[in-house]
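All the exercises in this workshop are built on plain-text protein records. A record pairs a protein's sequence with a compact description of its fold. The structure tokens are whole numbers drawn from a learned vocabulary of backbone shapes. Once this layout is familiar, the rest of the handout is easier to follow. An example says more than a description, so a record of this kind follows.
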Amino acid sequence: MLDARSGLIPVQKTPNFAIHPGAIMTSKVVWCFMQRFVPAAFLALSIVVVPMHAQKTERAADEKPAAASTSTASQTTTVTVAVPANAPRMSNQTRFQIIRDFETQLVYARTMFPMGTKGLKLKDGVVSPGAQELQQLIALWGPSIKPGDPAHISYVRIKDNYIHFDLNGGAVHRKKWYEHIEVAGANGASVPLSQDQATNNPHGSYLDIYFDKYVPEMSPAQLRALLFPVLDFNAHNKEEAYLDTVPPKVKAAIQAHKVLVGMNTEMVVHAKGKPPKKVREKDGDTDYEEWIYGEPPADVDFVRIVGDEVVRIETMKVGGEKIVRTEKEVILANPEDQEAKREEQDRPSNAPSLRRPGEDPENAPKPTDDINQMPPVAPQNIPQQPSHDPAGPGQMVGQR
């Protein structure tokens, strides 16, 4: 330590701190850990982060092509290729694919299915039985599935020249395997394991699509296109499926919740819902039903229905104005007229006829069902010859 006499400034001595040997060992351990494991940790982090970034970039790059693929898929579902006429017979692999694709699928009906053991047949886009016969079956047995109703394809069977589809369990109830088992009792009487059930299924029906010679090779999309006159696979709900089966004017009115004169009761229900009030009255010899929608002070609609057709609509406004519509606003196709036109189109041009050559079919005499009450008139100017017949046995007996 230098003093002032040496010409140097004295330096103050700092106190010494004692360091514990354990702290030195701990610092060495931490330093060794950082030297050895930190680079490995950074390497592992880079390995995890880089693939995640790559996945994000790949996902972002694949978003646009995926959207394009969905758009193309939607286009392919709407535009389907028809089955060629010279297509080979359907292979077993395609059969299994169609059965897996169509069974347990929910579809919407585009036409009426009758109740009972008689379903619908489809061939070349034509549904049989015809409209008139179908109306008779529905009037006799009732409808099983109405247009727009959801239907469940419960069973698919591919035969030689047609494909069979059971809807809502089919027209005939199929028993389970355990329903065929019987147990013999002590006295020899058989006891079934399940209760007897009716063979008919009133809630189900079926559809058969026929081909010319055999079931050709086709894709499920092509089969859906062939079934479109009867079943709708693209509808999202019941309302959408039903609107595709009505004329455009009726469709616009139903979407606007408006009733038109000439609609049937089902169209009215789709347009306004079920009526809160119904009144049955009689106008002369005509029985009608009045469906009432709305309550005062709002507008009130009185829809008059005769049979199954709307013939009069009366609207009472809030201000007291009364609007009555009786003129037909929509004309629905009559099934009998459609059947007659179809038969006339299917009739060949050289069909045999009872008319003479050159006779006008409009002025030709038409057969009548009236019975002619007048006896036939004997022709005139025919000389009457005297009868020389001998007396009969009645006259001989009378003379005795």
The chain has a mean pLDDT of 74. The radius of gyration is 44 Å. The longest strand covers residues 150-158.
